Structure of Lipocalin-like domain-containing protein:
Amino acid sequence: MTHPLEGEWQLLSSDLTIGDTTYPCLPDDWRMIKMITATRFAFFSARNERPNFPSYAGTPELRLEAFASYNSGSGTWSLDNNQYVEHIEFCNFPNYVGQSIAFDISFDGDQLTMAGRYPLVSMGLGDADGHLVEVFRRLR
């Protein structure tokens, strides 16, 4: 039997609150897809307009621009009641590898909301953790 989490999801909104300030994390010119199977998850996000390489290797500047316009990560996941935990094994941002990030989840029709503490301190990305809220729409 499949779990309602399994499938393909498109990110509609992502907001990170640190202290009293909320930062939108999905720019208008980006798209993100999350895929969840029975045991694994993967996410892919990219700017809608990305540079093409004039040759296979590309210049260091073009490769840096391409890196800055694409994010991905994957790993395993677990679920305890309504707490979904991503155990990150691969990510183009090395600080995320080895992290386990927990979210409370809820469903409303074809929408999935994930909300939880975002461990910025343990990833070396800030002096305080944040609170991340993401809303997805089921694609399949």
Notes: The first helix runs from residue 60 to 68. Strands lie at 7-18, 21-24, 30-36, 40-47, 70-80, 83-91, 100-108, 111-118, 130-138. The chain has a mean pLDDT of 92. Residues 53 and 62 are 7 Å apart (CA to CA).
